[in-house]
Amino acid sequence: GDTAVRFVNADVLMTGDVFRSIGYPNIDRNNGGTLKGMLGSLTLLVETAGPNTTVVPGHGAITNRAAIVAHRDMAMTVRDRVSKLLSQGQTVEQVVAAKPTADFDERVGNAAQSAGRFVQQVYAELRGPATR
Asked: What average pLDDT does the structure give for the chain?
């Protein structure tokens, strides 16, 4: 799922599950994924793709470099919003209910199934290990 392949002669970038053109990212924390790693991978894909590169995502329709840029920027915006709500002492339930993805939902597509999951993953990572 984390493998990306660049076909130089064809100017095609297959991104695996690191980038999806539909739905919110999956940080896959259960298998060692991190928000920082995901954002770093998206940045590497942006740097690898050229202006005419065909991008084949792990999920969703074939697209282009601009879609990866928008996806990465959206993830960073949601991260910043969740961080702000977390710093205000809000619980994960309150943060999800605040809908920090709302203005992206229509554009991202499949939001009903993936927005809450993504926000919860971001929250868990920013919060860090639970204290007892």
From this structure: 93
Locate 41 and state its tokens: 């991978």
Tokens found for residue 13: 């970038």
**Cβ burial, residue 63 (10 Å; 0-12/13-18/19+):** buried
User: What pTM did the predictor assign?
Assistant: 0.91
pLDDT higher than 50, residue 26? yes
What is the rounded distance in angstroms from the CA atom of residue 100 to the CA atom of residue 82? Answer: 7
Print burial letters for 16-29: b (CB count within 10 Å at least 16), e (below 16): bbbbbbebbbbbee
Backbone angles phi, psi at 13, to 5 degrees: -120, 115
The pLDDT tens digits of the residues spanning 77-120 come to: 999 999 999 999 999 999 999 999 999 998 888 788 899 999 99
What gap in Å lies between CA 117 and CA 27, rounded to an integer? 9
Closest by CA to 48, choosing from 3, 5, 2, is 5
Please name the residues in contact with 82: beta carbons below 8 A apart, sequence gap of 6 or more.
Answer: 95, 100, 119, 122, 123, 126
